[in-house]
Write a structure and sequence with these properties.
Blueprint: E1 2-3, E2 8-12, E3 15-19, E4 28-34, E5 39-43, E6 50-65, E7 73-78, E8 82-85, E9 89-105, H1 119-122
Antiparallel strand pairs: 1-8, 2-3, 4-9, 5-9, 6-7, 6-8, 6-9
Length: about 120
C-alpha cells in the first residue's frame, strides 16, 4: 500500500486546490458509500491497480501480497487520505465510521469477467 502525497497545494482568499495525483493511467472511477461496522473488498486483482481517495470516513485496511501472506499489514485511513494498492495485493476494508470515497481503477472492470479474486482461489 502506498500513501499518495499531494503533488502541489495552492491557497488564497478564494479557497484552495490540492493536486491529488498526476501520474498513471486510470480507466474507471467509482464513488462508494459504506456503513459503519461492515467489511468490503476481501479480494485482490491480477491486472488492476487501484487508487482510493477518502472523502469522509474512517477505514481500517488489512493487506498483504498474495505470494507472501505472512507479510500482513494494517493501516487506518481517514478523510483526506489518498492511497494506492497495486495488483496482487489482497485487501479488506473494515468500515469504522460511515465512509464515502472514490475508487479509481487502472483497468475498466469487465462485468462478465471481473478482475476480482479471492485469496483462497489463488491457492488452487
Amino acid at each position: 500500500m502506498k500513501i499518495i502525497k499531494p503533488y502541489f497545494k495552492f491557497e488564497d482568499e478564494r479557497g484552495s486546490i490540492k493536486g491529488i495525483i498526476n501520474k498513471g493511467n486510470w480507466e474507471e472511477i467509482n464513488y462508494i458509500f459504506s456503513k459503519k461496522n461492515f467489511k468490503r473488498a476481501e479480494h485482490f486483482h491480477k491486472k488492476t491497480d487501484e487508487l482510493f481517495i477518502i472523502i469522509d470516513g474512517l477505514i481500517r485496511i488489512t493487506y498483504f501480497p498474495i505470494d507472501d501472506p505472512k507479510k500482513i499489514k494494517e493501516k487506518t485511513v481517514k478523510s483526506g487520505d489518498v492511497f494506492m494498492l497495486k495488483r496482487g495485493i489482497y485487501h479488506e476494508f473494515e468500515i469504522l465510521k460511515d465512509s464515502f470515497w472514490f475508487n479509481v481503477l487502472s483497468k475498466k472492470m469487465n462485468p462478465k469477467n471481473p478482475d476480482i479474486h479471492s485469496f483462497n482461489e489463488s491457492k488452487i
